[in-house]
Amino acid sequence: TVRRQRPRRLLCWALVAVLLADLLALSDTLAVMSVDLGSESMKATLRYFQHLLGKQADNPHVALYRSRFPEHELIVDPQRQTVRFQISPQLQFSPEEVLGMVLNYSRSLAEDFAEQPIKDAVITVPAFFNQAERRAVLQAARMAGLKVLQLINDNTATALSYGVFRRKDINSTAQNVMFYDMGSGSTVCTIVTYQTVKTKEAGMQPQLQIRGVGFDRTLGGLEMELR
Ligand SMILES: *[C@@H]1O[C@H](CO)[C@@H](O)[C@H](O)[C@H]1NC(C)=O
Ligand SMILES: *[C@@H]1O[C@H](CO)[C@@H](O)[C@H](O)[C@H]1NC(C)=O
Which residues form the signal peptide (predicted)? Predict the structure, then answer.
């Protein structure tokens, strides 16, 4: 069986989802889910499968994955040139299918919390995800039957959340804030400027601008654990 990992930040994101709904003037129920799945899962058979999303079999990150997790049997999909997990002789899963299951499970958690059905989602992805990786997330969401209203970079979501809760501190003087996010598999540093600006329609409005992003795709808790 495939053990599903719990997204850790769901409750907090559910709150942000309400705020996002306000901000983006979307009336539909929103669920914000993170694909930054935690490392502390107990006996997950497919560890860190998200590192394989949207990658060709010859990608160096796939080779790194093989060396880090030799217990997982990966086979190459001859058509797509991507890899799949061989669970048993009969059972294979692509990383997208595994993420689809995780998203579906996350949706059931969000539905329990919201006490209503959820179809629409805003999904956060790491800022460094490329187009193929973003497509893989969209494909996984489709498998889970979720309609993706938007993919949003997780550092942008963090900056947005910070701005919403610190609205009172934002004035006409530009303030720069650095967000530093070291997770289990990667590290991202983002510099954001907050400032109120004059708009024609609504007068002074708070605004955020992402000034710069730096990252290391492999620096994280896992790397430290392995050394
Ligand atoms: C999603 O999860 C529900 C239970 O919450 C299950 O009934 C359904 O079959 C799952 N759908 C998919 C596509 O995995
Ligand atoms: C804006 O707020 C910061 C602190 O939040 C303060 O130091 C600064 O003086 C304020 N600037 C203006 C123009 O009010």
Answer: 1-25
Q: What tens digit of pLDDT does each residue of 125-174 get?
A: 999 999 999 999 999 999 999 999 999 999 999 999 999 999 999 999 99
Residues 115 and 218 in one domain: no
Q: Which of 153, 177, 204 is the last residue of a domain?
A: 153
Q: Which domain holds residue 168?
A: 156-226
Q: Which of 128, 153, 178 is the last residue of a domain?
A: 153
Q: Are residues 53 and 145 in the same domain?
A: yes
Neighbours of 191 (CB within 10 A): 16
pTM for this predicted structure: 0.77
In terms of residues, how long is the chain?
227
List ligand 1's pocket residues with C-beta within 6 A.
104, 108, 144-145
Alpha helix (H) residue ranges in the chain: 10-23, 60-68, 95-114, 131-143, 154-165, 221-226
> Residue 28 CA to chain centroid, in angstroms?
21
For residues 162 and 51, membership in a common domain is answered with no
Domains held by the chain: number = 2
In this prediction, residue 45 has a pLDDT band, given cuts at 50, 70 and 90, of low
Nearest atom in ligand 1 to 107's CA: 5
